[in-house]
Every structure is written in C-alpha cells, then in structure tokens.
Amino acid sequence: APLNYDSPQEIAQFLDSFGIAARKRWGQNFLINRGAREKLIDLLCLSPNDHLLEIGPGLGAMTYQAMTHQLAGVTLFEIDPAYQKILREFFSRHPHFQVIDGDVLQTWQPFIAQNNKEISYKILGNLPYNISSAIIQLLAHTPFSIAVLTVQKELAQRLMASPKSKNYSSLSVWSQCNFSIQHHVNLKAGSFYPQPNVDSAIISLTPRQPLQPQLLAILDHLLKSAFAHRRKILRHNWQNLLQGVMLALPQEEFDAILRDQNISYHMRAEEIDSETYLSIAKAIAISLE
Ligand code: SAM
C-alpha cells in the first residue's frame, strides 16, 4: 500500500509532510479499521466489467483495496485539492483511472449525463456526514447496481425506519421507494481517525425499478407536505396540496385515490408505509397523464 492506512500516526505524519491536517468541514475522518475496509469492498462483489465510482476517497484507503481487483474503470470524486494530487500520484499508473475534482454535489450529474447510458456503476463511499443524505438523493438519477456506503448511524436508522417509529420521515419513505436498503454492521467512532463524535454504519443500496422524473416529483411533493408537521393530521398537512406538480389534479380524484388506498384525512403521515405512498403517487401520475 502507498501508506499504512491502519496507523493514525503515519496518516498524521503523512498529512503533516504536505503541511495539511484533516478538515472537519469536509468530514475528513479516515477509515483506519482494515476489517471494515475489506468488508466494504467484499460487499461490492467487484468483477472486471465493473466501473467503480468512489465518493470522497480521501487518501485512498478503500480505493487501494478496491484496486486489488481488476476493474473496467475507477472514478474518484474528491473536493480537497491536496488529496486530488496525492490520489493521482498514488494511482495514476492504473489504466482507466480518473479523479473528478470539486464538490460531488456539482460534478456528479454532469459526469453521469456525459457517459454511456449502458454503463452500470458500482458505488463506494465513506461519506462526509454533512452531505450524506444529499449524496443518497443523487443516486435516484444514477444507473448503478449497488452502492456500499458508510454513513452516520442515525442516518442509517432514518433510512431504514418503519412506520410509526420516531425515525420514520419523508427521507425514509423516499429512500425506500427508490432503493432496497440493507444494514450490515455498525462501526464505533474508533474505526476512524480523527475520531468523529458519532458512530457509523455500513449500509448498501440497490436500486428498485427507476421512478420517472414526473413520478419522483409527485412523490417529493406528497411527502414534503405530509411530513411538514409530524403531529398534525393529513387534513391539515395536505390542505394546500393541489398546487405545483399536482395543480391539474381535481380534488375529487385525489380523494378517490386516497379511498382506494384506505387512507383517511384523520391519519398522520407517519402511519402510512412507503409502498402505500408509492401507490398513491403512481395513481396521481396516471390521473395527470
Ligand atoms: N474514503 C476515505 C477513507 O475512508 O479513509 C475518506 C473518507 S472521509 C469520511 C470523506 C471524504 O470526502 C474526504 O476525503 C473529503 O475531503 C471528501 N469530501 C467532503 N466533502 C466532499 C464533497 N462535497 N465532494 C467530494 N468530496 C468531498
């Protein structure tokens, strides 16, 4: 390996030799737990036709592990200019390797759009905490076969939450409509250097049937309004629902869709499961066609 990725001392010295330190604002916590890195890569089941996309590679701890496999392509998305340079030095001799510089929230969509629609990516990331859910939302518009991610434990709980639990939110429903989500293992803060204040979890996502943009927009609108005030009933949260993407839907049709799904206006958003929300959104999309 180009660096001893298990050793906080060596990482600190290495950063020091470039006159840099791990930056909190970019969520720079390196995964120093070798077993966890191996687990992440194993979960990807890499094979020679795979094109790997890694979000936030840092100093390349997981990249190195992934590159022990033959791959059709490796693309890294890294915001820190110092790390971009280091990654190129470490890995550029590998064919089909590239680093996309900048904020992944800006660079992801253009990268996906300019590439061959036939490519199906595998995605890897020990995600920076503050933008993890924004990154997961990018994946709804990405062709991929599996994403293996490390996220804050609380985010994993929100993504996987069931109706009526305190973590159940519009993000839970949205994610469950778009992906099958699996929780693999929790990681203590000590698996990282520097140690974050929170525990993490390794999760994987596989896409369900992709939802058309119009359907996604309806689902978004429905969920944002439903969960706007958690303690209030749907009659309150949905009183101004028929605007924006749903402007053209007559009230009677919406009411009929709810009746079909056995949903009453006296229910709260948290009582409805993600499959029912998806069915409602699909019925609305059909009515609007
Ligand atoms: N993958 C490395 C590891 O496991 O040791 C580092 C993971 S660290 C939690 C998060 C990484 O994401 C850092 O390298 C950080 O610079 C990068 N990062 C933070 N915000 C980013 C953004 N908006 N776009 C791209 N990379 C970002």
TrEMBL record:
EC category: transferase
**The encoding gene:** rsmA
Q: Which domain of life is it from?
A: Bacteria
**GO MF annotation terms:** 16S rRNA (adenine(1518)-N(6)/adenine(1519)-N(6))-dimethyltransferase activity; RNA binding
Q: Where are the transmembrane segments?
A: none
> Under what name is this protein listed?
Ribosomal RNA small subunit methyltransferase A
Q: What does this protein do?
A: Specifically dimethylates two adjacent adenosines (A1518 and A1519) in the loop of a conserved hairpin near the 3'-end of 16S rRNA in the 30S particle. May play a critical role in biogenesis of 30S subunits.
Query: What are the residue boundaries of the Ribosomal RNA adenine methylase transferase N-terminal domain, all occurrences included?
Result: 36-209
- Residues the entry annotates as binding S-adenosyl-L-methionine: 29, 31, 56, 78, 103, 126
